[in-house]
Amino acid sequence: MGDSPSLIAVIDDYEPGCDAVSSLVRSAGYRCVTFRSAEAFLKDGREKDPGCILLDIRIPGMDGFDLHRALIRMNWEIPIIYVTASSETHYREQAFRLGAAAFLPKPFHDEDLLNAIRNVLNGFDQTSGQ
Prior knowledge:
Elements: E1 7-11, H1 15-27, E2 31-35, H2 38-48, E3 52-55, H3 64-73, E4 80-84, H4 89-98, E5 102-105, H5 110-121
């Protein structure tokens, strides 16, 4: 990507939350693109080639885990940070089994999300369960 800032894809159907995360990501100097569904991302995301995905679990249609599995089947290796209100332990465990880079339950601190993004983009392993 050269010197341009990394592109972050946000996939969340809750518009106010998606817009807030997008604004935060942009304020940290990253480029950001938002999708309201997994299907919309699959249709348009590969062309945009994001550096990582901020993904909600509970989205209409294909949920976050289904999208993650689809990306694995497509051999599209892209770091996924789950950002979700679904904080139950089994969701966290399933996310990490699929290879999640990080899992942040909502509400989260802005700096926690930005640190997770920085770590993912810099290649740090976050599977410790932050």
